[in-house]
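Second attempt. The first submission of tRNA(Met) cytidine acetyltransferase TmcA had a stray character pasted in from the spreadsheet, which I only caught after the job came back as garbage. Lesson logged: always re-copy from the clean sequence file. Corrected sequence (761 aa) follows.
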Amino acid sequence: MTRSGDPSVSDSPAGTPDIERLAAARRDEALATNQRRLVVLSGDRDSGIDAAFDVVRGADVPDDEVTFVTTREGFRFERIEPRHAANLLGTTRTVVVLDAHDDFAPNALGRVAGAIDGGGLLVLLTPSLDEWASDRNSFDERLAVPPATVEDVSGRFRTRLVSTLRDHPGVALVNLDTGTVERDGAYEQGITFDIPLPPVPRDRLFPRRAYEDCLTADQSDALAALEVLHGDDAAVVVEADRGRGKSSAAGLAAGSLAAEGRDVVVTAPGKRNAAEVFVRAERLLDDLGALSSGSADAFDLSARGSGRVRYVPPTEAGAEAGHETVLIVDEAAALPVRLLSSYLDAPAVAFCTTVRGYEGAGRGFSVRFRDRLDESSHEVTDVRLDHPIRYAVGDPVESWTFRALLLDARPPVEELIEDAAHSTVAYRRLTPDDLLADEHLLREAFGLLVLAHYRTEPDDLARLLDAPNLTLRALTFDDRVVSVALLAREGGLDAETRQHMYEGGRIRGNMLPDVFTSQLRDEQAGVPVGYRVMRIATHHAVRSRGLGSHLLSSIRNEFEDDADYLGVGFGATPELLSFWRDNGYRTVHLSTTRNDTSGEYSALMMHPLSEAGETLHDRHARWFLGRIGDVLTDALSDLDPDVARAALAAVDPEFAPSLSPYEWRVVVGASYGPGQYTSAPGAFRELALAHLTAPKNVSLTKLEERLLVRKVLQARPWTPVADELGFHSTAQCMRALGDAFEPLVDYYGSDVAVAERGRYE
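This time the job returned cleanly.
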């Protein structure tokens, strides 16, 4: 029997660890330092649940301060299903027990850990730590993308997780199968957490009560910075790690502004992300006696006068931020740059962002959006919160979750890779085993992937290490990662799976085959094997050097004999469509609904590698051209004209117009003579598609091409088209359309068109 090194913990007479005493010791230690501690109970599940009750008794915690996150039922404590762990966001608990035996997911671990208050305990129930890596649960089943099975999923993520549990400070390990305390988790630091409350600023604009509600000097400084939202052309950037109180500060500012009669729009990736903002705003308004009795909705608060704090989804927030409105964006790093840029039309806006956390990547926010913010007309105020609110500095549970989930992963520092160029980088295949064996390499690669996407979660780390369909490629400079691409293998599906998809069943991980089969009714689309570029990122210090294109070229060379195609799917913007077109990818589909978070329509593009890939691409490119004219007048009638231009310019083959002699006479008459566009709009649509799929053939201005999209392809009324494109009148807009078709008639026109044109020359 192994005895704990903690003198306050002893084995019970029955030969099993005295878990109550262990829990009491860790709880006393946590209370003394205002930190948290982690207790791991490994072994049989039923024994683990019994031991978790011992922990609760030893910690001497009231039942209403305890939550079990488990698929099991029958507890007297609050119970939450692991898939609903997000419900703990914005709440605090003293003890949370996470049952990792079934439906364990990294996301749930991150969310649970963030809900524990200073002085509290996180209790993790696991299978035997020696066997956990080979254990399989429902999360592993989700990683098993067809045609792979759950047996193909590795356990590298859990292997790494176990290694962090074995050596991180403040972690107690109890082996229930052997009845031993492998680590007592004793961790004492001479930290005083009695931090004096910040003084209320003398020259304040917000109510004194708002400052009295601040818990740290950081939070008070953030609230003072947010006072600039009283004026126009003001922007505030509030950055913090998780648990620093930035959302609370934003809520105090929102409540203060509403109490003065201001309209405050709050947006975030979802309502739950903004919950703390509204909790704080409502409490402050109530304390000030300014909360209207008509505030029945927790996310729409009315204050005295015309003051209001209301949640608006991110895709609508820019339009709602009028002249007298203040816009507060919480978890800004989890929103795409296109949406963030649209918020700059608001006269006063605050961007609150998590620097390290599963909500998003603060560094990505600063790298990808900050230049646009600095170039705007807003005067920018920056403030950062470093001091934790719920627990003391140096908390071992926080440092463990950052380490275990790579919440603090970063690419290499700029000075180490600033000389990277085509001739000095090496193309590498980074296998999961490579990443597991080299923590530094893993952190750099994952850090770049975090920057590549507006939302990266702990689950993505497990996918990177364990999912059998994913593979990683990189460019390195002096063994430092400067560019990285995450690829997903798709296709190669059997007939039964393809039939299941065709009949409406969802197949994980196969984006292009799924869309082609279920939406576009191509049951054979799942036969060819492709690799989809899920994410690609180049270090911000060496961008604009063509390294991303160099990486894609190297990928193409590697896979040209092993796959049928390369593919990609993304929220369509003109810049991204042009980038992928320049790298040999061609448009085959535009989604007909917008993404709820990004507000963008998605584009699917392909780069064929084999005859089977060419056949699949050509089939869907042909179908895309056959339907896009109709779709642009219907579901895509609000598609940005520059997105339409870029998507159509990336189609291969080009659209070939086929006009009857009558249609040519109408088109020539409307462009060179007195004819009317409305006599045969379908003929004009064919010519517009022909030009936009091959803009190199005829030189038109961007304004003329936008006119082709808005009026001809999307069939919008003349007046709004003229207003949007800056024409002085609808008559001028009509003449411009006729002028734009003249060179199209000259290039594409038949003998009938040439003869008809001669009548007007």
